[in-house]
Write a structure and sequence with these properties.
single chain, alpha+beta, seven-stranded mixed β-sheet, four-stranded antiparallel β-sheet, 20% strand, elongated
């Protein structure tokens, strides 16, 4: 569907709620312009060096059905539940956190799309071996609200208890961060666990044990080895199919075909043959 056409001329937004340029029909994603007719950006992705396996002009990592492009930068995959979003973070980033020996954190947010509530996480922040000193990235898409924060503890370290939330709600550590942010927390451990901390009740529980894990961890829960760039998930969001346009019923009446000049001449020859009397050669006089 061309972005140059909309229901009303006063409507200035098009693909994924981005501003529409009426003169060109492009969608302005702040960092680059997108042509919906071609399904491609006209500007190189500013994060092309970070995602060097993607086309520099692709949309949402070339995942146009399930992923959303925010400001022309990264795809934010949408999930039905907060836990699903947290699990996706663990599947995508725990391996990277283990291999690089760095903590990685993000904010899980919710957003309404097509009238339904979905969850996703923002651009993750990479910290140091035991913490993210510069703090989490708190930047969220327009219309989104923070729901929880999540981080991965990196690789196995015998000097630390990386299988559990650190600190307490009244002090520092992971629980202290949750209290300061006013958000629940999720944790992905070197042993492959996904854990949840409820701020209101000050309780925690294990949700899943199928996250990528450190082979050196004595508390390893599975044999899912860490990899740097796992295959992306499709997420839970599926775009609603567009309704078919209203069509007029086809009439059963079939008009008589109109002959062109060539067919008319053939029809005339047939009629001449039918109208010309046949000659009885037996009645012809013989030549002497």
């Amino acid at each position: 569907m061309s972005t140059a056409v909309s229901i009303t001329p006063n409507y200035k937004y098009s693909s994924q709620g981005q501003e529409k340029q009426t003169e060109t029909g492009w969608s302005s994603f702040k960092w680059r312009n997108y042509d919906a007719a071609m399904g491609r950006f006209f500007n190189v992705d500013p994060l092309s060096e970070k995602y060097n396996t993607w086309s520099t002009y692709a949309f949402s990592g070339n995942r146009v059905v399930d992923a959303r492009e925010l400001e022309g930068l990264e795809p934010h995959v949408l999930f039905n539940t907060r836990e699903n979003a947290a699990a996706n973070f663990g599947q995508q980033y725990n391996g990277k956190s283990i291999l690089n020996k760095r903590e990685i954190g993000a904010v899980i947010y919710f957003k309404y799309v097509d009238g339904k509530k979905y969850y996703a996480y923002n651009n993750p922040t990479t910290g140091e071996a035991h913490g993210i000193p510069q703090g989490l990235n708190m930047k969220l898409p327009k219309g989104a609200a923070a729901s929880a924060y999540i981080h991965a503890h990196g690789n196995e370290d015998k000097e630390y208890d990386d299988e559990n939330f650190s600190g307490d709600a009244s002090g520092g550590g992971d629980k202290g961060v949750a209290n300061n942010l006013g958000l629940d927390a999720f944790l992905v451990t070197p042993g492959g666990q996904l854990k949840y901390y409820d701020l209101s009740s000050d309780t925690e529980k294990t949700l899943r044990t199928n996250m990528p894990s450190d082979p050196t961890s004595p508390e390893r829960k599975n044999r899912i080895n860490p990899i740097e760039n796992p295959r992306p998930s499709l997420g839970d969001y599926r775009a609603k199919p567009k309704p078919f346009p209203k069509l007029d019923p086809i009439s059963d009446y079939l008009p008589k075909p109109v002959l062109d000049d060539g067919l008319k001449s053939i029809e005339a020859m047939r009629q001449n043959r039918e109208q010309t009397p046949s000659i009885d050669r037996k009645q012809l006089p013989r030549h002497q």
